[in-house]
Known about the structure:
single chain; mainly alpha; two-stranded antiparallel sheet; 2 strands; 1% strand; globular
Amino acid sequence: xxxxxxxxxxxxxxxxxxxxxxxxxxxxxxxxxxxxxxxxxxxxxxxxxxxxxxxxxxxxxxxxxxxxxxxxxxxxxxxxxxxxxxxxxxxxxxxxxxxxxxxxxxxxxxxxxxxxxxxxxxxxxxxxxxxxxxxxxxxxxxxxxxxxxxxxxxxxxxxxxxxxxxxxxxxxxxxxxxxxxxxxxxxxxxxxxxxxxxxxxxxxxxxxxxxxxxxxxxxxxxxxxxxxxxxxxxxxxxxxxxxxxxxxxxxxxxxxxxxxxxxxxxxxxxxxxxxxxxxxxxxxxxxxxxxxxxxxxxxxxxxxxxxxxxxxxxxxxxxxxxxxxxxxxxxx
Length: 332
């Protein structure tokens, strides 16, 4: 039964991916292309956060530091060197290396703490990166930020759209395999009951650090694509808003589902874009953040487990009822 369900879901994922791949060639809309590209980028960020929150039970308020490292890495490389694919690869490798080292050190220093103590310390560390970006003007140009060029292959919006889409699909598949691996199962056990998992002989801290490193590296990759989509970077990439966006996307879509992170990213970005457009039509929508908050409250009320989580629970209950009816019929 589970195999049939998995095959059905994989078929649905394949159809959606194929549709998104051919979309820019059958529907020419620059605004839609840019919006979907932003969704793909933030979906990568949200999935990286879901690995922490949904599969390990870690609430981090400092996820923006990894996102910012990726954004500044690509910006600095493309600003100081020729915008070639070779330098782009160097920027990606630098991002992977720096985010892995920083997330390892941060994890080593903070993951011994519990719940809100860990969350507050990660927020403080992210604040240090924000201050560093503001003060190190010779490298970052402070709050003003700087523009940069990108390799030719990324200049065309359609090419960049496809690259971001393929990257999102690749991250989804990698994390799906990762979370279903023995290591991923241990992470889920830590989420459910950390003390019991430790009593079974697992080094809980080591597994938490592994999840932190993978999550940090993927957040850095999302930062690279975000900066390249704007061809501009400033200190806002280290802002708390980035972490809160990732948190909201994960909660709205469904914690611990991965695909929920993608749906959450899509919902938030579409809501933000739609409310911003409505602000041009009527003054009341200029306070779009109020309506955005209302949308979030409604989703939490009607989908307490997130959109995907609630639908899964509903489907599970329906199958359970059908199974009970079949047993009754056979007994009768």
